[in-house]
Specification:
The structure is a homodimer. The first copy, chain A, has eleven helices and twelve strands. In chain A, 55% of the residues are buried. By secondary structure, the first copy, chain A, is an alpha+beta fold. In chain A, helix 7 packs antiparallel against helix 11. Chains A and B meet through strand 2, strand 3, helix 3, strand 4 and strand 5 of A and strand 2, strand 3, helix 3, strand 4 and strand 5 of B.
Chain lengths: 339, 339
């Protein structure tokens, strides 16, 4: 039997959703449910690191996708931002706006997914808000993530110096190829269920925030960002913030077997596809092995180096410069098909 | 000439909006614009206090209202939550989702309002997100507020004991009466401009968070909440959390002259109207004068006392119990007319 949010009512709904979240840890002095959550967010000598992301139905997700995965991703993308600062995640605040006609079970599964990722990373959900939406309006999800870091270990986008190695964790391009596959198969239009056995689709729907690698790289990498807009776009942010340029060897970009099997588009996905949520960072050449150890099983690949001259050059195996691909990253405020 | 968000584009828009926010204070190590903001959020021995609120067009505001006031209110309601915990505000994160057809000038004014309230309370805007929305969808605004408090001074909803005095700051009911007036005058429907010389309308559109009073009451009041759902509804939250009841004298409720002039509905607005954003708190009888001093010019009124027996009784001047008004507070997930 289908039950809508309006049928449950605000206060019973709050109780039902709260019950799905992890029990407060010993850091929490006042849990969710008061005017504010109170938490020992930062350890001795640490400063607070914070980030917020909105996810909008029709742009960042569709209701045809499993809500649990939408919840996992909403939390993951925020934890990824903390990872890119070299911060230890500690708390989160979650707000959802949904029309009263929304299925209760969908929102409950959304919270299950949020709770899963919170538990995995020992994150306390410290606050929340639920709001109605006019009928027919999209569901909107806001997640704020809070963490702690020693100030001298925080890694910014600025800080990359000429000669530093440009490195990435994991593999690139999978998420964008997975999105393309879901678009082609009619999954985004709600016509078919997502193929969760397809590793590309899974990378798009359930990205893993590189929290441990980020912590290991704190105080070691000279600049860091997580790849959300796409490798070239995010490297561009690092170059701009650092006042430098980069030289990238296309042949060194780490491509998964699944991505290689997609054919000639593979490199283009890796260069320009968004939402990999891998870490892109720079280290001094002498720190390469320490950085590799910090990345552990996730793996790290050196894909190029920073140069004095502004701009990004992508070199092919034969040494020729690759024409910049047309698709330079996500564009927001675009049509819904940009999902 | 009207310019839309889509015409400006995402990155220039971010720069334009960032420029309107206050310059980072000395507490900020990494300002807005990196993957996360980094800030010395808490002072020596303090813990972090956090809260989040969503504001939805068509439910919490309409585009016909001055955007600057919408921004001021979005920040104010979050600072009000921190005040109700007895916390010192320090940081905020602001996320906005809007269709690409939204007027740039409206969103710029929104940020001006956010920035005004941030400056007034020395709040650093540490992070943000901008997202598109499908055309025709409402604008959604998410504000997270962060603050610090000494753990022993944090004030919860729980903690009110039988015999404690029930107190409120300022006056009650104005905001709800102002909302009613805007509904009657066609302002909510966009037919007339809001009358900003009407004190009731102004209380609804531009509430003042009782930050100083909240700080003064920290470590002094036994329980505290801000009045957002309505006096009776929020007193109900305190009673429930504290495992007690309350006896209220209707004749003692502080009504502004403007509200009294509205006629026989005045008491009902004061009891059940939402969004006053005054503080509702309890103190031991011996602490009444200290509490009054802490509230300063905002003023404090004792409106009743806590009792052992559960439930809230409202007594009229002749000692008879007032029938509970039908409207027990805001209901969310309701139709848009609930604004």
């Amino acid at each position: 039997v289908s039950v809508t949010l309006r049928e449950v009512g605000e206060f019973p709904l709050i109780e039902r959703l709260k019950a799905r979240l992890p029990a407060p840890s010993s850091r929490v002095l006042v849990p969710l449910g008061d005017d504010g959550g109170v938490c020992r967010l930062t350890g001795e000598g640490e400063v607070a690191v914070s980030t917020v992301d909105l996810l909008v139905e029709g742009i960042d997700f569709v209701q045809a996708l499993p809500a649990r995965l939408v919840g996992r991703k909403a939390m993951a993308v925020n934890l990824s931002d903390l990872a890119a600062m070299g911060a230890r995640p500690a708390g989160a605040l979650v707000a959802v706006a949904a029309p009263g006609t929304t299925e209760l079970s969908w929102v409950e599964s959304l919270y299950d997914g949020i709770a899963e990722r919170a538990r995995e990373h020992a994150v306390d959900v410290l606050g929340g808000d639920l709001s109605g939406m006019p009928e027919g309006a999209p569901i909107v999800l806001s997640v704020t993530a809070l963490g702690g870091a020693l100030p001298e270990k925080v890694v910014r986008r600025a800080g990359a110096r000429p000669g530093n190695l440009v490195c990435v964790t994991g593999t690139l391009g999978d998420a964008a190829a997975g999105l393309d596959r879901m678009r082609s198969s009619g999954t985004l239009a709600g016509k078919t269920a997502p193929d969760l056995f397809d590793p590309l689709v899974l990378r798009q729907l359930d990205p893993t925030p590189r929290v441990e690698a980020g912590l290991g790289l704190a105080g070691l990498s000279t600049a860091m960002i997580d790849i959300s807009d796409g490798f070239l776009a995010d490297l561009g942010h690092v170059c701009e913030a650092s006042g430098a340029g980069a030289s990238i060897e296309a042949g060194k970009l780490p491509l998964s077997r699944a991505l290689q099997a997609t054919g000639p588009d593979a490199l283009s996905w890796a260069l320009s596809g968004g939402e990999d949520f891998e870490l892109l960072f720079t280290v001094r050449p002498g720190d390469e092995e320490r950085a590799r150890a910090a990345c552990g099983a996730v793996g790290m690949t050196v894909v190029g180096h920073m140069v004095r001259e502004r701009g990004i050059r992508v070199l092919q195996a034969d040494g020729r410069v690759l024409d910049p691909p047309k698709r330079a990253g996500w564009t927001h405020f675009g049509p819904v098909e940009n999902l």
